Description:
Blueprint: H1 5-30, H2 37-44, H3 48-54, H4 58-77, H5 86-103, H6 105-114, H7 118-145, H8 151-171, H9 178-189
Helix pairs in contact: 1-2, 1-4, 1-6, 2-3, 4-7, 5-7, 5-8, 5-9, 6-8, 7-8
Amino acid sequence: MPRTEKQNAEIRERTKALILDASLRLFAQKGYHGTSINDIAKEAGISKGLAYNYFPSKQAIAEGIIQNMLKVGEELAKEFYKPVDPFERLDNMLEASFNYIKENEDYWKLILNFSLQPDVLDYAMKISKEFNDKLLAEIKSILKKLGVKNPAMEARLLGAMVDGVSLHYIIDKNSVDLKKVKKAILDKYKPAE
């Protein structure tokens, strides 16, 4: 009995995910330029031709990984918008961000690698702009409600701090205690009692 269109679509999605997962692992281990389509196909357990059937280039694969991780980030960000007091929202945001870092180390290694690939980095910045702008606005709103002076600048500084901590964690997990960092950040913004 031939497969249904639904079954074919499921197979296509699984194969695409297999390619993206294999690529993420390899890009994180060997770097973007150190990984070939042959390597990706071998890691995914498929033929090189099948890999090209799904993605016309290595850059298209990188863009697919970025799109997937942005979707994951958007799902995670839903936690940030739950109606709780501003300090608890900040706590939730930091907890979710640091958990995301720990659970997606290969992605962060890839981002570090992509920072040296202008074409891929430009794409990542372009598609994540709306998400980043919304997140920055949310952080600014939280900080404003907490009575922080110059919440727009503080929001940018907080974002840069979390990004920096993320990179240090990826480079050397032992150099960063995420719980202590979170506590230090929360102490900085804790409302006076």
